[in-house]
Design brief:
single chain, about 500 residues, alpha+beta, seven-stranded mixed sheet, 16 helices
Length: about 500
């Protein structure tokens, strides 16, 4: 019998990958390519959408070539993406009307401040589960409409299409200007600040307030679609007609990939940023502690599953910054070797509030700081402080999550590129005082997209079959004494206060 696979396209913040998964959920073949990060002004972050589409096609073709995959071997295609990153393009030509504005970008601060003058930062939270913040897509669309004439003119003509990166990739895969599917799944739509969490439809009042025409928005669809979003073109990168049936924002995809299908199960993904999600089941849990209420996933016609999320802007990106901006090392994994040359961070803390502070603080006026510096500090201490800052930020989020949910987490499932760093994982267990569990398959974001696509076409029968695929690689158990944990975390909280009120209008 022909071996079949599910193809997952993972369009991330720093690059795109294509992975083919077998029935056991194992990544059999993969390819990866980076794309450029563009910084036109301080606080602005952009991507070139055409470059992203080109690299996406490249990695799909590379994966198929490397695996010598024959026609008919792929059952379906799933897509996962960097969420909130926003773009507008012309429906007739497929030309982007501006670079994509990345989720880390802070240019919409004035728009968010203006919107919050009536009703405060939580003006729309009851409908959308989100505070007014530069993070989300809605204010980015408003900025494009107000500041880019080409976007405004195309919108007036009815030619403009808005989407997050999943919308762009799926539109291109399924035909582009020749009938491409203009869709977005519920998880990505929940990050726009434009979708009502209960009705799973665009909120007409918020659209009017933000001045965003309904005509430019994609159709909202389930994360796993028995009725495919569309089909790949024979002249596209797959070289054959395949159903595109899975679509999830990257962090929700990791929740699915980690098989967190029961209320109370949580995962933390360590990538460019760090994102902890807690499954709250069919219940919409409003956060009172700085977390986001978001869609977890929706499979077919089943009721949606919701989640609480704590989003951290800069984690793996801090390692890249030390590599690229300061030249501390040539390859990102070398940071662990440098950090291990010292016993601790030498009493200093590194708070990487490069894009302000996300959960649970939501302070766009914050900026990054190194505090506690003495002449004793060297490059190794800075590397160690950079690594453990990720663990401290995760504890900030976990404590907020426990307060909101009323559930004390018993263990934390982890995934993403940084989980290979054992110094960080051990410190994470130490500072949280809970076991940290690393699975055998750490590419859980792509795996989640594959699961969503595969469930839709019967490649996997149900979520019970997915649970059987999940296995533990290593469990990091807490080893730190309680007094030391308390002292170190108190220092971190003090360091946080030093980042605030830096940006003044």
């Amino acid at each position: 019998m022909l071996q079949q696979y599910i193809a997952a396209i993972d369009q991330g913040t720093t690059g795109s990958r294509c992975i083919l998964f077998d029935h056991g959920g194992h990544p059999v073949i993969w390819a990866y390519a980076e794309h450029k990060q563009l910084y036109p002004q301080p606080g602005w972050v952009e991507h070139d959408p055409q470059e992203i589409w080109e690299t996406t096609q490249k990695v799909v073709r590379q994966a198929l070539t490397q695996g010598n995959i024959s026609s008919g071997a792929i059952a379906a295609v799933g897509v996962t993406n960097q969420r909130e990153t926003t773009m507008v393009w012309d429906r007739h030509t497929g030309e982007p009307l501006h670079n994509a504005i990345v989720w880390q970008d802070t240019r919409t601060k004035q728009i968010c401040d203006q919107l919050s003058r009536e009703g405060g930062q939580d003006r729309f939270r009851a409908q959308v589960g989100l505070p007014l913040a530069t993070y989300f897509a809605g204010p980015k669309v408003k900025w494009l409409l107000e500041n880019v004439p080409a976007v405004r003119e195309a919108t007036t003509r009815g030619d403009a299409l808005f989407g997050t990166m999943d919308s762009w990739i799926i539109w291109q895969l399924t035909g582009g200007p020749q009938g491409g599917a203009h869709i977005i799944d519920v998880t990505n739509a929940s990050r726009t600040m434009l979708m009502d969490l209960q009705t799973l439809s665009w909120d007409a009042d918020i659209l009017e307030i933000m001045g965003i025409p309904r005509s430019m928005l994609p159709e909202i669809r389930p994360s796993s679609a028995a009725r495919p979003y569309g089909f790949t073109r024979k002249d596209g990168p797959f070289g054959e007609v395949l159903p595109v049936t899975g679509d999830l924002g990257d962090q929700q995809a990791a929740l699915v990939g980690q098989t967190c299908f029961s209320p109370g199960e949580a995962k933390n993904t360590y990538g460019t940023g760090c994102f902890m999600l807690l499954n709250t089941g069919p219940e919409i849990v409003a956060s009172e502690n700085g977390l986001l209420t978001t869609l977890g996933y929706q499979f077919g016609n089943a009721p949606p599953v919701y989640a609480l999320e704590g989003s951290i802007a800069i984690t793996g990106a801090l390692v890249q910054w030390l590599r690229d901006n300061l030249g501390f090392f040539e390859r990102a994994p070398q940071i662990e070797e440098l950090a291990r040359k010292v016993a601790d961070a030498g009493g200093m803390y590194f708070v990487p509030a490069f894009s302000g502070l996300f959960a649970p603080y939501w302070r766009s006026d914050a900026r990054g700081v190194l505090v506690g510096l003495t002449r004793y500090i060297n490059k190794q201490h800075i590397c160690r402080a950079a690594l453990v800052s990720t663990a401290y930020q995760t504890r900030d989020v976990l404590e907020a999550m426990e307060r909101d949910s009323g559930v004390a987490l018993q263990a934390l499932k982890v995934d993403g590129g940084m989980v290979a760093n054992e110094l960080l994982m051990q410190f994470q267990a130490d500072i949280l005082d809970v076991p940290v569990i690393r699975p055998t398959v750490t590419e859980t974001t792509a795996l989640g997209a594959a699961y969503a696509a595969g469930l839709a076409v019967g490649f996997w029968d149900n979520v019970a079959a997915l649970r059987q695929n999940w296995n533990i690689d290593h469990t990091f158990k807490p080893q730190m004494q309680a007094e030391k944990r308390k002292r170190l975390y108190a220092g971190w909280q003090k360091a946080i206060t030093r980042t605030l009120d830096w940006v003044v209008e």
